[in-house]
Design brief:
Elements (H helix, E strand, L loop, with lengths): L5 H14 L3 E4 L3 H9 L9 H13 L6 H18 L6 H13 L2 E4 L4 H20 L15 H7 L3 H14 L1 H20 L6 E4 L2 H16 L2
Parallel strand pairs: 1-2, 1-3
Helix pairs in contact: 1-5, 3-4, 6-9, 8-9, 8-10, 9-10
Amino acid sequence: TAHISSSSALEVRDMIVKERPSGVMVELCPKRIQKMKDGGLGDSPGGLGEMLKVLLRGLGSGGGLPMQRLLEQALKGFYGNFKSMGIEPGAEFKNAIEAAEEVGAKVIAGDIDITLTMEGLTRALQQDWQQMLACRELLDLDIDHSKGFMDTAEQLKSRGKAAQINAAMRKCAPHVYEVMIEDRDRTMAGYLCRSNHRKMVGVVGMGHCVGIEKAWLEYFMNV
């Protein structure tokens, strides 16, 4: 999915209702599931490429804010922009949980604990920020904004765009990429590989698909 795509949210619900799996894994940890039930995911990681573009501009401004504070501002600003347009980032997860409950499927929180992820992200940014400032790839991603926001959001659902964003992230912020993509890919793939459910649906961002598939294949090749 794309976390800011309204069509992704609808597609997730349709898929779960159609397939009627016994388990649904979502790209959330238990804390984030509870936060969603309490009213939203507005300060949770997702849409990493665009969020880091916001953060990179903040780092370049020379304001001298601590890394943790810059990170908090970048996340809030990133999600606040979408909410002001009536878009709820992560709506596909809400739909996935509701659809899972409707068909009697177990909801599996497949992601790393948000506290650990944010702590790791803060450390990674401290390691990567100078390299990020010198790297243009994050600011020059080939995404066509000319047709409006919704069309831009749909572009993020393509494997090609996801691969482009991930490649830029790996080059410009390797430690951030490890924390936000690779570690979480392996964790979510582990839940899928070890599952004893007859049929499962996994609901994850497009940027995680290739890594999850790779970890999946490596797991079964080594069994």
